[in-house]
């Protein structure tokens, strides 16, 4: 049995949940990295205040701010100012939770379906409840396509309600599955390269795999951003439909 059998862990190891602090309240690694992502989001929003000369940190903050602001304004409309702080915060927490998963010896909070489904359920069902408080029984119009025959109204309302529940599930599952699959593939590729290195493969031969790995990791960074944006985008559509 070769040496790397003992040294290379399973790609699924990064998703194991274990306690870090266990007093009256247990703090596991997933919650710990989720807190770190939230802290980075706060620092990103406040670090460049009062600066006259633009810095890369300030440019990054403004770019993310304008991206989320334009999305919220375009798809929610006149009520965007009410929802923007919440969606801006959600976008940053998801983005930095995704990115933290790419750092060595860390875990990805957004790869846990309990977190992603909780976020999607809270936001979309919250939009539905808010719409019910605002519009009352008129909210059922959102579940009824125009021109529906009278006899089909109950069935169509039921189907649209099921479609909304499906949207909640797909929103949470999409984020969690994308983060899980991408990170597993990245760690698997790294494991193969490391195993080849331990078996004495020439560094010259490993240049190409390492280069391809770097391209893949750059793609993973882009996917982290895209998944955070898609999450906020779909929530914006739900708010537009029901509020």
Automatic annotation (TrEMBL):
Source taxon at top rank: Eukaryota
Name of the protein described by the UniProt record: ATP synthase subunit a
GO molecular function terms listed in the Swiss-Prot or TrEMBL record: proton-transporting ATP synthase activity, rotational mechanism
Keywords, comma-separated and alphabetical: ATP synthesis, CF(0), Hydrogen ion transport, Ion transport, Membrane, Mitochondrion, Transmembrane, Transmembrane helix, Transport
Chain ranges passing through the membrane: 20-45, 81-101, 113-133, 139-163, 203-236
Natural source organism: Chytriomyces confervae
Subcellular location: Mitochondrion inner membrane
Family according to the record: Belongs to the ATPase A chain family.
Membrane topology, record value: Multi-pass membrane protein
Gene Ontology cellular component annotations, sorted alphabetically: mitochondrial inner membrane; proton-transporting ATP synthase complex
